[in-house]
Amino acid sequence: MQFIQNAWYVAGWSSEFGEQPRRVTLLAKNLVMYRTSDGDVVALEDRCPHRLLPLSMGHRVGDNIQCGYHGLTFNKKGVCIRVPGQETIPPQAYVKSHPVHQLHDIVWVWMGEQKLANVDTIFDMPEFSDPTWDAHQGGQLQLKSHYLNVAENLVDPAHVSFVHSTTLGSSASEDVAVKTSTNSDPIVAWRWIRDAPPVGFFQEFGGFTSNVDRWHYYYLYLPCTAVIDFGSADSESNLAEDDRDRGVRIFAIHFITPVDERNSIDRWMHIRNTAMNDDAVSEKMDKMFNIAFAEDKAILEAIQIEED
Questions:
Q1: Which residues pair with 31 in a beta bridge?
Q2: CA 48 to CA 35: how far, in whole Å?
Q3: Contact present, 65 and 79 (Cβ < 8 Å)
Q4: What are 159-183's pLDDT values in tens digits?
């Protein structure tokens, strides 16, 4: 199985990494990751070159990591700095290191050629830093599914009417045509549902009781970061497509981590322009998102079984 190597991938939320070494599997490669005393996160190949014991089974010595089998010690760049019992350190005693960057409390790892790593290409949105928007990290979904199936699901408005009929969609959108743009990064698919009853999500969080105009814009930033821009506004306002900020607007962001050929992790969060700094609303949204994403999980894992 081939993966795209020269790309930034999410290894986890910043809160997932502390001083203790932990194994992270990305693109079917095992990494050992830990946070150093200066707050940086290190990502190294998770196997000692001596007898191949995972370094994640060792322990920290300062900002270095010591193998739990024979005590070979490696610095945060993967260079062996100690072989107990001998002064000579063989040149092949090293482990591969990977560039790591933290942005908006998210830890990104570059899996390809180090010389090509450019932090300016890491996914970002102006709403992350805009005080008129509220960003909230949600959870993570373990999926027994190839990451491309997950990515395709997250750029597919057509499934919402059927898979999420009580939360994010309804029958009103079933026959509304989906428009697409696939000529650049990101890939985009979208549609508007005009003058229709509000879906369950916006009955709960928009307070809408009469008909609304609602939208879904699905953006897939290659290889596997997805942004779903969805919202609603009173249909009487006849909201223009470029005026979506005037409605109740939410960005659901999905960071897909390809674990291996049949497993993925979907870390999700949202950014909203309503109910600012209201933890109770964030918690209620999380619960509703959890219901919807569990519906996706059932679909995607069933498809993977049939593909296999």
A1: 24, 45
A2: 19
A3: no
A4: 999 999 888 878 888 899 999 999 9
N residues, the chain: 308
CA–CA dist 121, 303 (Å, integer):
32
Cα(138)–Cα(270) distance, integer angstroms: 7
Q: Answer whether the bond into residue 223 is a cis peptide, omega within 30°.
A: yes
User: Closest by alpha carbon to 214, among 161, 163, 255, 162?
Assistant: 161
**Can you spell out the DSSP letters for 59-105?**
EEETTEEE-TTT--EE-TTSBEEEBTTBS---TT-B--B--EEEETT
The region that residue 193 occupies, defined by phi over 0 for left and psi between -120 and 50 for alpha, beta otherwise, is beta
DSSP per-residue string spanning the chain: -----SSEEEEEEGGG--SS-EEEEETTEEEEEEE-TTS-EEEEESS-TTT---GGGSEEETTEEE-TTT--EE-TTSBEEEBTTBS---TT-B--B--EEEETTEEEEE-S-GGG--GGGS---GGGT-TTSEEEEEEEEEESS-HHHHHHHTT-GGGHHHHSTTTT--GGGTTSPPEEE-SSSSEEEEEEEEEEPPPHHHHHHS---S-EEEEEEEEEETTTEEEEEEEEEEGGG---GGGGGGSEEEEEEEEEEEEETTEEEEEEEEEESSSTT-HHHHHHHHHHHHHHHHHHHHHHHHHHHHH-
Write out pLDDT tens, residues 217-275: 999 999 999 999 999 999 999 999 999 999 999 999 999 999 999 999 999 999 999 99
Q: Token pair for residue 185?
A: 């990064």
| Beta carbons within 10 angstroms of residue 65's beta carbon | 26
